[in-house]
Amino acid sequence: MTGKTVQKTAALRHAGRDWRVPYLPVGSPAGAADIEAVTSVLGSGETLSGGAWRQRFEDDFRAYAGTPHAMSVTSGTVALELAIHLLGLRPGDEVVVTPQTYQATIQPLLRHPEVAVRFCDVRPDTLNMDPEHLRTLVGDRTRAVILVHYGGLPAEMDEITAIARAHGALVVEDSAHALGSSYHGRRPGSLADLGCFSFHSSKNVTTLGEGGMLTFSDAGWAERVERLRGNEADARYSPRARRFGTSAEAFPGALYPGLAYTHDCLAVLRPGTNATLSEAAAAMGVTQLRSLPEFVARRRAIAARLTEVLAEYPGVIEVPREPDGVVQSNHLFTFFVRQGGGIARDRLLHELAERGVQVPVRYFPLHLTPEWRSRGHRFGECPVAEHLWFHEQMNLPCHPGLSDKQIDLLGELLADALAAAARTPGAEGSPC
Ligand SMILES: Cc1ncc(COP(=O)(O)O)c(C=O)c1O
User: Fold this and answer.
1) What are the residue boundaries of the structural domains of the chain, listed by start?
2) Which atom of ligand 1 is nearest to the CA of 211?
3) Burial status of residue 97 (CB atoms within 10 A of its CB: 0-12, 13-18, 19 or more)
4) How far is the CA of 198 from the centre of ligand 1 (A)?
5) Where are the alpha helices (H) located in 91-218, listed in sequence order?
6) pLDDT in tens, 370-384
7) pTM above the 0.90 mark?
8) What is the pLDDT of residues 175-219, one digit of tens each?
9) Of the N and C termini of the chain, which has fewer Cβ atoms inside 10 Å?
10) What top-level class would CATH report for the domain 32-229+274-280?
11) Distance (Å) from CA 102 to ligand 1 centroid
């Protein structure tokens, strides 16, 4: 049975039943401080959009991330869309990306058929972009490198940014998993040119279930994001301001006659959108950010516990190691069941699912998805990412939504499933 079939069978068998240990938090992650903050916004009589909370959240985030600009938007996906727009891609440009991430990291590039996307393989011990492979892909046409800090473990940013800068390429950090991580005293989102964060319900902090943030240094980008997220066009404007009128009489259609349409638009680069984070969401962002150290400590404690159980299988199971000077948030708990060690990864997935532990494998290598295959990408392009997904990598539940009881249970079920998998030779998995 292939890995896919095993997962599908298990999913069907468990359809409609409550998981004993769910992969994602069940219910709201809001605590008392979040509820108080949101309630106070709702009861304040103040506007629910475009008030002071969004600014406060952005100020706090900027201070936390250590970047000159932090600008909120409505999701991590929108943050990435705007970041990729800011790259100013032109026909003939190349962008190097990781295949091992959630699809939103690179999805906006599908709207750029004029740009060549090159998938960089990942390191077999971390699933982060491999600087050695990157070195062979980056050239004078490379406009940008887009990476993720997989599971919250920071990628090798010193090496990666040095390689990119040697060719004048920009680097985008998808930091959706890495809020709360650190890299030699600095924080993700401040390690390259642009940082993108998600505050989806499952993330390290959430803003009422959806939200996102962009971080960067460039003041020009700040002006452009301000326009883009507020329904104005990102455009080249004439330096000479032209006023149609300064009073409602002179320009009766305008709500703010003195301000509106005071410049000529020479070229629209992209129409704007409404990506305003609501006041209630921003208020929750403020309180969640304060709780971040506690959330990360909980994630790390769960990861440490699971690592202890896995340590019973040295040489068979490997858990990604934190290099010196690096702290990871453990947004995901990932490990590798090395092939040929006596335990088949797919057997272990099956044994865990049978015991009520929800175990997706994150993420399917993106160059093999239909949308990227239709752009000419194919099997064999990133052999390490492919091998790991089809044979070795897996994830376990690891989030503050797990109770102490569930964490104890997870440890026991994992030990039990490992023992069962070690007794039963199983399928090694095969490409689809
Ligand atoms: C790595 C990564 N990038 C981007 C996103 C997209 O974020 P959002 O769900 O807020 O749009 C996610 C969300 O799951 C993610 O895991």
Assistant:
1) 3-24+289-423, 32-229+274-280, 234-270
2) 10
3) buried
4) 6
5) 131-137, 157-166
6) 999 999 999 999 999
7) yes
8) 999 999 999 999 999 999 999 999 999 999 999 999 999 999 999
9) C
10) alpha beta
11) 6
